Backbone:
């Protein structure tokens, strides 16, 4: 370390002939809004700043606290009085942690939000200024309309005090995807070297990436252009932005992102100087997935698979899998925008193998496929993060947690004599159940094929939907029992072999589940106060059970499920012979299905059979397929009908 520093000082002594302080390292910093500083300056950013970290003000502050051309301790804001935190703040501070006590760092800072690289080319600035948006005009005026000239003028002044040791650039969002950008940057860099009589080998150019793809950066595509800068400028060094946290607009970094970015700039400069530094300076933060962009409802998914050849994202909001793009450190990334904000299952396909998202704790409870869950909630209040949270979820989001009394979800185990096994059960009790002393109606809600007893709770959001409906007076307070619907190998519902499967479930429910519930919870034990429904396989099980036991149930609903005409004729001929047995006894017989559901035609055939036999039923037709988005819609609809 000491030998390296002595070498550095010796080399700077040669470079700094005529400079007043050979140990005063000057850095020129220019670019657009992320260099200017877009994040709010927090309390921690204005304390503990070394007296050896200085800023040569490139503008006059209106309160006269700073004057152009004078040195000040580098307390933010560094660019102009109304700008925010910038990577430069922590670039200088970090360098001083590694430099000897007799060394100083100074920065000259000229940046304009939204400016193109053309704004730093003297032969283009006048034409560029003619088309500048109104909000940029006062920024340009702060530099007398010529930001490059101001940068050079201040740099020459700084050279009287110390040695220009490097140039920091962050610009590119305005030039996203422009293949000429690297050559234009080269022109600016060579102009600075010429006008300040500098040598490229002594003054490296440090160029920062824009908000990266793994953070959903809206200009992330430009990083591929930025990363080529070394081919055009041999002394250029790219500072990666992967993992750096961003603002709500996914264009700017937030304060934490700027702090980390500044340290990365510093780490690169220390490496150029040959100074050893702590490895955590360049350690990438833990990737996040999924990363939900609240403002526009898009989502960024990330997964680490360094050796993979292909990674795809698949989800119920996608018609087909979407390829992901491999980035730094083997992190695969993609940003997509579902048409509707909702809760969706998704997973990755890594070289043909389906896996859940290892970065996401919210898993889809399922026996078969391994998926994760992403919830895309409503946009924040007042259209910006940090605004007060709304007291209730917006209308049209029935599953959103609202400021209403909340029920309780209890995990139970009961002994099944039918299956000779202990079985799991999830039970919802409404708010106030513990203290009311009342008895409640019971709704038996059955899971779908390969789903578990948790799926209606964790994916269907039964508890929050019912909390909200009860609070609004749209649903009766009720107990909801969510059994595990797997009775063993599941036959195809089109096959008569499904009858035996359904019979086992009906026996299990009526002889084991219902007695357990009625012994352990305060229930109203008559048919008028019992309902049953299910999704997919659970819908078929519910239909068969209720039709087999009209003495036990008066309310029946099927979500994306059916019984075949052959099954109806074989198992329930009494209803075809006398439709009044259904019409008079069942208070509700309800079917819901999506137009794109692969079971749509079978559900319609079941309805047509009932119509032909004179059996009344209520139908709900929606768009979409065999999805939990539709299942939640059907649940929300029928909860408002039961027990009324």
Residues:
């Amino acid at each position: 370390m000491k030998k390296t520093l002595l070498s550095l000082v010796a080399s700077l002594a040669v470079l700094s002939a005529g400079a007043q302080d050979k140990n005063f390292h000057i850095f020129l910093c220019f670019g657009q809004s992320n260099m200017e500083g877009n994040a709010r300056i927090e309390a921690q950013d204005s304390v503990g700043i070394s007296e050896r970290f200085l800023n040569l003000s490139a503008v006059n502050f209106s309160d006269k606290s700073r004057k152009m051309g004078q040195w000040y301790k580098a307390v933010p804001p560094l660019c102009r009085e109304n700008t925010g935190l910038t990577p430069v703040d922590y670039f200088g501070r970090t360098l001083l942690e590694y430099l000897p006590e007799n060394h100083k760092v100074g920065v000259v800072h000229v940046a304009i939000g939204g400016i193109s690289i053309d704004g730093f080319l003297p032969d283009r600035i006048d034409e560029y200024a003619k088309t500048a948006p109104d909000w940029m005009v006062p920024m340009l005026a702060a530099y007398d309309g010529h930001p490059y000239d101001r940068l050079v003028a201040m740099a020459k002044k700084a050279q009287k005090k110390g040695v220009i040791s490097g140039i920091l650039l962050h610009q590119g969002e305005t030039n996203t995807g422009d293949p000429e950008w690297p050559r234009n940057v080269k022109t600016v860099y060579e102009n600075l070297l010429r006008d300040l009589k500098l040598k490229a080998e002594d003054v490296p150019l440090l160029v920062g990436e824009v908000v990266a793809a793994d953070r959903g950066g809206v200009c992330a595509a430009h990083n591929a252009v930025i990363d080529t800068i070394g081919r055009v400028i041999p002394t250029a060094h790219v500072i990666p932005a992967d993992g750096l946290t961003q603002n709500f607009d996914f264009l700017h970094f937030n304060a934490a992102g700027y702090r980390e970015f500044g340290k990365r700039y510093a780490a690169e400069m220390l490496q150029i100087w040959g100074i050893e530094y702590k490895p955590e300076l360049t350690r990438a933060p833990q990737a996040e997935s999924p990363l939900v962009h609240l403002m526009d409802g898009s989502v960024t998914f990330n997964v680490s698979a360094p050796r993979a050849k292909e990674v795809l994202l698949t989800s119920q909001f996608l018609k087909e899998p979407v390829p992901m793009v491999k980035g730094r450190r083997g992190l695969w990334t993609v940003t997509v925008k579902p048409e509707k904000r909702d809760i969706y299952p998704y997973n990755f396909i890594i070289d043909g193998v389906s896996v859940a998202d290892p970065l996401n704790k919210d898993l889809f409870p399922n026996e078969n496929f391994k998926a994760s869950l992403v919830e895309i909630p409503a946009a924040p209040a007042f259209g910006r993060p940090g605004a007060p949270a709304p007291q209730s979820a917006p209308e049209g989001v029935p599953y959103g947690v609202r400021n209403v009394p909340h029920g309780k979800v209890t995990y139970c185990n009961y002994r099944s004599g039918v299956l000779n096994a202990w079985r799991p059960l999830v039970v919802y009790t409404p708010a106030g159940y513990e203290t009311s002393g009342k008895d409640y109606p019971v709704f038996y809600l059955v899971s779908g094929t390969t789903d578990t007893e948790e799926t209606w709770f964790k994916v269907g959001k039964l508890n929050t939907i019912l909390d909200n409906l009860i609070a609004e007076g749209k649903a009766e307070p009720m107990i909801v029992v969510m059994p595990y619907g797997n009775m063993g190998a599941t036959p195809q519902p089109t096959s008569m072999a499904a009858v035996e499967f359904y019979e086992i479930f009906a026996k299990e429910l009526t002889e084991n589940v219902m007695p357990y519930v009625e012994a352990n919870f305060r229930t109203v034990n008559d048919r008028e106060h019992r309902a049953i429904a299910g999704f997919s396989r659970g819908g078929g099980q519910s239909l068969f059970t209720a039709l087999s036991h009209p003495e036990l149930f008066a309310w029946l609903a099927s979500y994306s499920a059916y019984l075949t005409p052959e099954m109806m004729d074989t198992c329930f001929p009494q209803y075809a012979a006398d439709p009044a047995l259904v019409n008079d006894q069942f208070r509700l017989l309800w079917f819901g299905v999506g137009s794109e559901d692969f079971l749509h035609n079978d559900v319609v055939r079941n309805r047509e059979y009932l119509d032909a036999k004179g059996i009344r039923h209520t139908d709900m037709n929606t768009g979409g397929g065999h999805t939990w988005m539709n299942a939640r819609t059907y649940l929300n609809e029928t909860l408002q009908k039961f027990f009324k």
About this structure: The chain has 20 helices and 24 strands. The longest helix spans residues 498-520.
